[in-house]
């Protein structure tokens, strides 16, 4: 089975290394962090095809996934009112999972500290490498 994302559906986005999920922080509703899965809407993301990529919108707040700052290693992911276009590509080693990529770059969404499973670990962008902390499963809700 290959990576299968259908536009307009909700997903829990799970890191393949840590098995923690992409979570919009309940503390500030801005920071995007790794957290244990609990099923609340702050861990659900609506993914919509935008013609030249994908918008990823948090279900709880309606804010869009983006990175703060420039296109550089370590820029953290946040949720913002303005849509941001991402590319989502199948991983070359794990075909049921994908990489979330900043367009026109080699920057991948990355669970920091090489995939630290501690709750609250920042999610950032980082140059592509073969680490599983840059690979994500999309579990349809």
TrEMBL record:
It comes from the Eukaryota. Gene3D superfamilies: 2.80.10.50. InterPro entries: Ricin_B-like_lectins, Ricin_B_lectin. Residues 42-126 form the Ricin B lectin domain. It holds the Pfam family RicinB_lectin_2. This is Ricin B lectin domain-containing protein. It comes from Agrocybe pediades. The lineage of its organism: Eukaryota, Fungi, Dikarya, Basidiomycota, Agaricomycotina.
């Amino acid at each position: 089975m290959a990576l299968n994302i259908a536009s307009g559906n909700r997903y829990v986005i799970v890191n393949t290394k840590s098995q923690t999920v992409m979570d919009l922080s309940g503390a500030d509703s801005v920071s995007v962090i790794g957290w244990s899965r609990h099923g609340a809407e702050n861990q659900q993301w609506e993914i919509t095809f935008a013609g030249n990529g994908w918008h990823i919108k948090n279900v709880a707040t309606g804010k869009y996934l983006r990175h703060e700052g420039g296109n550089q290693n370590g820029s953290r992911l946040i949720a913002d009112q303005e849509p941001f276009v991402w590319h989502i590509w199948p991983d070359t080693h794990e075909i049921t999972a994908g990489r979330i990529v900043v367009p026109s770059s080699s920057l991948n969404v990355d669970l920091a500290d090489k995939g630290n499973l501690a709750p609250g670990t920042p999610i950032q962008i980082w140059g592509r490498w073969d680490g599983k902390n840059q690979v994500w499963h999309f579990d349809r809700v």
